[in-house]
Amino acid sequence: MNDDLVKSLRVKSGLEDIGYFMVGISKLPGFDRIIKLSSNESPLGPSPRAIEAASVALSQAHRYPELDLEQLPQTLAEQFDLEPSMIAFGPGSDEILLRLVNTYSNVGDEVIYSVHAYMQFPIYVKRAGSTPVAALDDDFCHSVDAILACVTERTSVVLVANPDNPSGTYLSGAEIRRLRDALPSHVLLIVDSAYDEFARAQDYESATQLVGEYDNVVVTRTFSKIFCLAGLRLGWCYGPPAVIDLMERIGPSFPVNIAVQAAAVEAVRDQAHIERVLKHNWIWIDRFSGALQQMGLKVYPSQTNFILVQFPQIKGKTASAADAFLQSRGIVGRKFLVADFEDKLRFTIGLDDEMEQTIDALGEFMQTG
């Protein structure tokens, strides 16, 4: 390959300085099986009904998925009390978020997000050629006042992850509404609600309820979390008819493949499986958080399927040392390559035995030295 030729290619301004914010690990030397608590996946796996439906659909894999998408949006609409015509799909909510930012933000515009929110947000903005604006937060929780202080005449989009990743924190329904009400009418508020179903705080409100009340709110959702279909890559958004119409016109030719469409319908319908996932998650969010707090670790209250843990950063008890110790036991959490997360690890809720082993390993780590 001619490196000089590659270097001569013109890259869109702002993209070359994008760095990695995390490194994924799915294998460890010396372990046939690892305890993977790094990617916010469901440990219980997909609904058996979803697996069967996808398997049956694969017999038509030689055909393009030119079937209409009436069944899938109708199923979601019935489950969440939504209007099916106001739903659009894409191969993962990441793709939908990128499409939205590209559509509603131009070169010279500014897009605001919280400084410690979902780490893909500034990447979406730079790919759109717009200017990312990071608002300060309140101990890794969104600050509505800080976001509003960043709004200028150049602001085109505000991005909010609620509940948030990687912190697990959230904004109440009242705070989301206060943010929306204070934004200029030309600013689009995009609420990424990948973990919506896991939120159990009494003052939490699904942002999909705002869409019917305002014409500048769009909510993104996913099948990767509560519906346990991360590997099939399906996301959806709920928004005003004009937004949805444009999103569909500029989106992929076939946004939902036939296998994932069949699996998604049954995943939504299998409420018994969803209840199992939620019950398992809430039990271990409480149990795991409590165990780590007893060790003297700071645990951020979570409305998701993971927890963010802060380590004391004293000699031998740093997050990096904990990460290395856990990996020596075959346990993989999430270590971020971002300075403000240097003292933190994120842990997805796993199976019962995986969580018990992780508690034991962290207890041993904190007691050594």
Distance between the termini: 51 Å
Number of domains: 2
Radius of gyration: 21 Å
Taking the sheet with the most strands, its summary is:
7 strands, mixed
Q: What oligomeric state do the depicted chains represent?
A: single chain
Q: Helix/strand-derived class?
A: alpha/beta
Which strands sit side by side, in order, in the main sheet? Answer: 2-8-7-6-5-3-4
Residue share in helices? 25-40%
Question: Mean pLDDT score, rounded?
Answer: 93
Number of helices: 13
Q: Uncertain spans, ≥5 residues at pLDDT below 50?
A: none
How do the helices and strands follow one another from N- to C-terminus? Answer: HEHHEHEHEHEHEHEEHHHEEHEEH
Number of strands: 12
Please explain how this structure is put together.
With 369 residues, the protein is α/β, with parallel strands linked by helices. 37% of the residues lie in helices and 14% in strands. It has helices spanning 3-8, 48-57, 71-80, 93-104, 121-127, 144-149, 173-182, 208-211, 241-250, 258-269, 271-294, 319-328, 352-367, and strands spanning 35-36, 87-90, 110-114, 131-135, 155-161, 188-192, 217-222, 235-238, 298-299, 306-310, 331-332, 344-348. The strands form three sheets. Strands 2-8-7-6-5-3-4 form a seven-stranded mixed beta sheet. A three-stranded antiparallel beta sheet has the order 9-10-12. A two-stranded parallel sheet has the order 1-11. 43% of the residues are buried.
